[in-house]
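testing teh design pipeline on a random one, pls ignore if ur not involved
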């Protein structure tokens, strides 16, 4: 086995350039500082600044350090700047070494890292302006590079980066068993992911005709999903003598696209020694920076389970080329795409067993792997399998008010964890499922059971009525996971929260439009919240003229709370303020009452009820509550 073309085929990115640093100075102080910096970068070249030598060095070097005013540097390098994937790292230092400014190629180019090193060495300060660094978030492009993932569309990176900074987290769907930074939330399904890590051209399909657009609107719900491509495809390739690079390229593209695979995921090509000097093949490999792995016929003939061809044997000495070459070079037992012949080219594709195995295979287990070893271990060997918990909101009560997505998650789950009443309401959906149900006050036990079940390899749906993130289970699952010591974590659990229609949406819809303006929702249950806190919130919301939605208004053990709440709100609102009382919204026993603040306690209020109290502008009409948004004052109708 031999690896050809290795160094010369990879000359496109920073990582492939010889690590070379040039330090430019203008003044004597600058030169002295440059010499001092040699203590940190012994192989750096020192040059008197002159615009003439710069263009050549720009393309050759990985780092350019300028000891001079930033303005001079900006003006000089402006015409040379091309692309963050190609431009060198540019660091500017004042001649006293007080500030090291990362000016260009901060992430992929490494300027931020260099500026920090220099500041540390000189006892100065690094000036870094990239938002992710400032916010202590990992840089997406750097993370992708460190994990050997190719970025499919660079124009999306700033957009995803902004979302990352604004939200403090990104949702990631990965078909690889990668260790993700804390701020990357692993999601179980791709439609809601900001980042999709897959070698599939379109993660929503199994095969894809080349002409069809990717990511149809119905499938992908996130605008501008960023695809990161693992380098894990190996192409076994055979071709007739004299086949052009163009024909090889076209065939590879057509076959991969037809099988819904991304070209960017190609890690290497593999062929027989006879083809090691085939010009078309070499040119194609060079164009994309692929290495070519060469096998002798004897090696190829040792691979079991391949259909032999006498014709191929006569021509090459091997009974087959593309299929055994792909399997050998991938270290795999099965093919992803069996032999496909088009024109003069034959291709077979195998997947590297594990993306990370690539380095082992090349005999250079990297330091990176050791340093990023995760305390979280996957429970199964399958890279596709991640333990899943769906925290599902089932809405106010009836099946048709559960979102299709939530229904789908329930269908996909092996075990349903929930509380009796809510489960009764969705009987239809869960009749064939294993169900774990405990009483109302045993939420913690339920959550623990859900996590344990998921860790044992099951897909679990934790069911909450209404929305799972409103007085329900979502927070509890996360708190539980957050509180566990690292040593207790045995799985890479992925948790997905699936929203549901909350009682306030359901009840408001029955009442008309009471929540058209700012509102506060307050639970009157003091089971987990001290009563004085609840009173303070009632007081504040009433005073600030919020519409108020009261959850958990009354139970058998807490009959007084609603009276006290009423008393507080009465201090700030007129007795005739409209009040809506909805019991069992969207359930068989639904009852809707519109009354006013003065009379609200005359009506039946229980734990299946939500009470909505209008603000000073809320009115009634045709037995409906309407809180104005303000269109009328603006003369809009
Ligand atoms: N997660 C749920 C709230 C759970 S707290 C949600 O988002 O709706 C339980 C309280 O919600 C009940 O005491 C009641 O105040 C309210 N509630 C839940 N379902 C309701 C329904 N169908 N009609 C009226 N109120 C409801």
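output:
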């Amino acid at each position: 086995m031999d690896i050809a073309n290795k160094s010369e085929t990879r000359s496109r990115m920073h990582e492939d350039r010889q690590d070379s640093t040039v330090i430019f100075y203008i003044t004597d102080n600058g030169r002295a500082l440059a010499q001092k910096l040699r203590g940190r970068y012994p192989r750096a070249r020192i040059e008197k600044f002159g615009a003439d030598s710069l263009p050549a060095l720009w393309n050759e070097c990985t780092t350019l350090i300028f000891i001079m005013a930033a303005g001079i540097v900006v003006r000089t390098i402006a015409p040379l700047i091309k692309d963050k994937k190609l431009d060198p790292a540019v660091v500017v230092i004042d001649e006293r070494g007080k500030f090291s400014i990362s000016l260009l190629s901060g992430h992929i180019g490494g300027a931020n890292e260099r500026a920090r090193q220099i500041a540390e060495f000189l006892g100065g300060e690094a000036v870094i302006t990239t938002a992710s660094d400032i916010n202590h978030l990992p840089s997406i492009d750097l993370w992708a590079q460190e994990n050997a993932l190719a970025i499919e569309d660079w124009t999306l990176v700033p957009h995803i980066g902004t979302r990352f900074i604004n939200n403090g987290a990104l949702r990631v769907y990965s078909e690889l068993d990668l260790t993700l930074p804390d701020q990357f939330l692993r999601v179980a399904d791709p439609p809601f992911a900001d980042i999709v890590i897959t070698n599939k051209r379109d993660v929503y399909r199994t095969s894809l005709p080349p002409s069809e657009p990717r990511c149809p609107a119905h499938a992908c719900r996130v605008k501008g999903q960023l695809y990161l491509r693992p380098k894990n495809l190996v192409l076994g390739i055979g071709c007739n003598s004299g086949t052009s690079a163009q024909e090889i390229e076209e065939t590879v593209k057509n076959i991969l696209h037809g099988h819904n695979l991304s070209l960017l995921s190609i890690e290497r090509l593999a062929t027989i020694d006879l083809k090691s000097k085939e010009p078309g093949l070499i040119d194609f490999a060079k164009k994309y920076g692929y290495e070519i792995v060469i096998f002798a016929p004897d090696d190829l003939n040792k691979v079991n389970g391949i259909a032999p061809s006498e014709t191929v044997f006569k021509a090459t000495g091997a009974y087959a080329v593309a299929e055994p070459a792909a399997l050998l070079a991938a270290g795999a037992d099965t093919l992803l795409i069996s032999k496909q012949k088009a024109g003069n080219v034959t291709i077979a594709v195998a997947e590297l067993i594990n993306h990370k195995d690539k380095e082992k295979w090349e005999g250079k287990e990297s330091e990176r792997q050791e340093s990023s070893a995760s305390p979280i271990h996957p429970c199964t060997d399958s890279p596709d399998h991640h333990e899943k918990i769906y925290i599902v909101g089932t809405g106010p009560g009836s099946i048709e008010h559960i979102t299709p997505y939530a229904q789908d998650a329930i269908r996909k789950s092996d075990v349903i964890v929930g509380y009796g009443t809510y489960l009764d309401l969705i009987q239809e959906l869960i009749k064939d499922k294993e169900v774990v149900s405990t009483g109302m006050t045993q939420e913690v036990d339920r959550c623990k059971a859900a996590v344990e079940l998921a860790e044992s390899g099951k897909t679990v749906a934790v069911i909450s009525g209404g929305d799972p993130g409103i007085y329900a289970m979502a927070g509890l699952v996360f708190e539980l996971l957050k509180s566990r010591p690292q040593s207790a974590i045995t799985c890479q659990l992925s948790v997905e929260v699936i929203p549901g229609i909350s009682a306030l949406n359901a009840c408001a819809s029955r009442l008309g439009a009471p929540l058209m303006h700012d509102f506060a929702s307050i639970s009157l249950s003091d089971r987990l919240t001290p009563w004085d806190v609840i009173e303070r919130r009632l007081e504040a919301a009433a005073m600030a003229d919020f519409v108020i939605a009261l959850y958990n208004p009354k139970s058998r053990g807490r009959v007084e709370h609603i009276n006290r709440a009423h008393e507080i709100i009465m201090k700030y609102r007129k007795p005739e303020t409209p009040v809506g009382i909805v019991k069992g919204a969207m359930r068989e026993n639904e009852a809707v009452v519109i009354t006013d603040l003065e009379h609200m306690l005359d009506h039946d209020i229980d734990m299946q009820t939500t009470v909505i109290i209008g603000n000073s502008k809320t009115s009634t009409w045709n037995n409906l509550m309407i809180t104005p948004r303000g269109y009328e004052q603006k003369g809009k109708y």
